[in-house]
Please model this.
Amino acid sequence: MKRACVRYMPLGAIGGPHSLRTRTVVVVAAIVCAFTLSVSVAYGYDELTPSASAGCPDCHGLESGFTSPTVAPTRKGPHGGYTTGTQKCQTCHTVHVAPAEGVLLLPKATIKDTCNTCHDGTGGNGVYGVLNARGITPAAQHRIEVTNVVPGGDPGGGSTTRTFSAADDYLTCSDCHSPHDAITVNAFYGDRTRTSTDTTYPLSPATNRLLKKQPTSSPWSVDEYGSSWCGGCHEGRMFGSAGVINHPVETETAGFYYDNIVRVTGTGTNATELGSLGGNNFGYVMPITRSAQQSGHYPICQQCHEDARNIGDTTPGQIVGAEVFSVTTSDGQNAANNPRFQTFPHESENAYFQVEENDDLCLNCHIPPG
Amino acid sequence: MMAERRRLHLTQRQGFIFLAIILAIVLIALIIYLLLALSGGGFTRSGGEVVEGLKPLLVIEGPGEGEKPKFSRPMSAAFGADGNIYVSDSGNNRICVFNGRGEFLFEFGEFGVAKPLPGAQNSWAEGRLNFPLGVDVDENGNVYVADFRNDQIQVFDRDGTFLRRFPDPLQEVGKGSSGQDGTGIAVTDVAVWAGKVYALDAYQVFVFTLDGEFYAQFGKPGSGPGDLDHPNGIEVADDGTIYVSDSNHNRIIAYAQTGDVLWNLGEPVSDIAKEVEYTFGLPRGITVLSDGSLLVVDAFEHALTRVSAQGEFIRRYGRRGTQPAEFNFPNGIDDTKNRVVVADKENDRVQVLELVE
Model:
């Protein structure tokens, strides 16, 4: 082992007491300077000053899947629409001063924390924590950054472990959502008619919620949000192999998805139509005996798994008793409205994200045999 | 007769001891400094270099003591009449109070739910908060807090003693609001001016008396002039002009006391594919400076934007980063005597700064 090359000079031999004082000052000054320099930050390039000639795509190109900023003319903030004239990348990414423990040059240590920077409820409704703020401990959650075990993830039945994008391969927001609106599903009418504000925009209130066509670990890509989208991870819920029989669901290959289901047209009738699941409750019942349009079809996942709400009384096979609530105020925040916004599929006050619980759910469609 | 000059002579051993003592003192001083700087508590006097027109005066990262020595996403801050600084420590559901030198004085508030869903417990009691956002202080020193997720405003005296709350979070307000279940108001920010309390709802401005009596409301959803979408900053100028950060519309709106629109600066995003140089990324907190101009916190630009009282862009201050006078998704702001205090949310701190031209 080599010793550091340091010479220890006899102090008194260098030049007497004045030299001693001088050397002391120099040593102290050197220590102070070294400390000061060690905590300073040098910037080699000012990435924050807007410059039309230095947009991020100039160096990094467009996001994979983009050929042009072709997102729909709805509000997406920094989530898409990147051009040589925009400066949106820096909203979420910082080139030189990202936290050392972070990822992807994001401002926070994890993707979830980065998303929560804005999605905390002050710019819309929040995502996680909404129920806790109302005194409810969620009965179900898509737990983020705490697990990579997928219930029903094994095509042969049972749970399985998958590889997602957060640390330790855990599930995180960007496994289902594309923050860059890249390769996302077709727009659909949300569970609620979103806000009265949106109705003033040039197009419909439809949104793709930045959902990826192919969530991380999904073996297939889908264009429409429906059962096949959920089944990308919960594959075991889509098949009946290994002796497992699941409640059958429609898939998008059968032409049934969130915006294209058979639904009753109104209360007190058994007339049906093809339409959106969003905005009312009429799509949440598939009673037996079924109408001609319903015949031969099954529900999609979201007809039973959605925001918790009252979709009908406990009258068996209650097509005539279907609830008539629909959204009439912005964000469905009126207590008389139904559906009311909660935060599906992030957290729910009902177990397994069920619309209703226990027999109350089953009896919407089924009449117990005599 | 000239006095003989006495010269100090040190032996080699004495010189070594002298130097060792000096080095030991320096080392101890450095250790103390490092402990203070890295202890994660309290405040640090900044006094750093001017950055993009901002001279850092003070950085406060939390009380520096107790069970929660650090802030968690502070969303707002305000100066009191006595120069104290009130910080809305949103993630910790409390208000922390510091003196003008940044020394921690006391805190008040804890988590409480005033609007439980069916089956949940009402855990609210006087002074309990549920994600507090905006804060303002009146001329008597009373503190008004936007108790966001409880859909109400709470008022405390200068010592943090609860005085009253309004509106009733379980009752409809005026002609209706965006409070959960349609009651109370989804209040993001408050401003006290001339005996009135101005508060923001998701799509409206509400005005109350200091005692909490409903007085007026204006604004509505939509994207036309004066329409609002989740505003997050409100302030009233000396002449009574009401300035609102219409956050999701990327603009500032000036209203007369009647609710009539005086001007808009910025415009809602109508076509994301259109290449437009927008004035604001995400305007949040807002304050009126002594010359009548506005200082707006732009959370997406990580900067402060100055706007004239006539609605003209003047300049930007600050930049993104973690050093003094740099920001990471800042949110709230207030000013006094040429100083501004900024809630630097994602840096989990507040900063006191001076504008330098």
About this structure: DSSP finds one helix and 27 strands in chain B. The longest helix of chain B spans residues 12-38. The two ends of chain B are 61 Å apart (CA to CA). Chain B touches chain A through 73 residues (CB under 8 Å).
